[in-house]
Input
Amino acid sequence: MFLACKLMKVIPDPEVQTSLMKVLSKKEIQKYESFTTLDGNYKDLYCYVRKIYDFSLGYIYEICYENSIRVPVLRRESRDDPPRPEYVYDEIKIADKIFLVYYTQPPVGNFIGILSGENNARKIASILSKLVNSDLSKSVRCFSEIKFLIKNNEHAIRQIPDFLDVTEVHIEKIPDIYIDTLYMKGTMLDQSEEYQKFVESLGGELKVLAVKFKDRIYYIYETGKIFTKQANLASTERYIDETSLIYELMKLLHGAKCFT
Output
């Protein structure tokens, strides 16, 4: 099963961290935003933490939230005119539940991992920021996005003993008159002539590096995302196992000084 984890760092401010834990610990519906509909009415949007799981590396939160969507309908000026789309009202939709892990153990304590695609992850981060701001009655920054420095540290990443194989790479901005972007997949790619040429010699920007770790393939994205196609998410216990593996990956990358 696919698993994407967008990683962010909680701002190292005790007030922010305390407020964030307070917000996440509330098993109650919390309003995070109000908006004006197209017909001029006001609606509130809510989220709630449905479940909290405590494990050795931190906490896992199961979060549900409402989102507003604009619903299009087709209008005609007259019976003979072609229909045209028009947004006439808003609906509130409850998004699918999303899991968030809050790591508390060094060396990656006070990092959160949102188990979703990047758009949903940023939405959850925005919601939590609004709730913290409301709790503190002031505007504060809650999270900073991290980047995996795979362009300048790909050699250090490949030298991590637990990473057994480089299986895929995505390279952009290649200074070649014919090739700008390149995707390669195979076995021991870092030993190939193509890797030496396009990554090391020509200096293309390495955006994604896929490595074999614990009998799985993990994709490390420059944008601070870790992804695998081989996750087991059949139960809560398996979520704990999966987030523990991501912690191990983060710990290795931290030791190699490969992320900000």
In short: The first helix runs from residue 14 to 25.
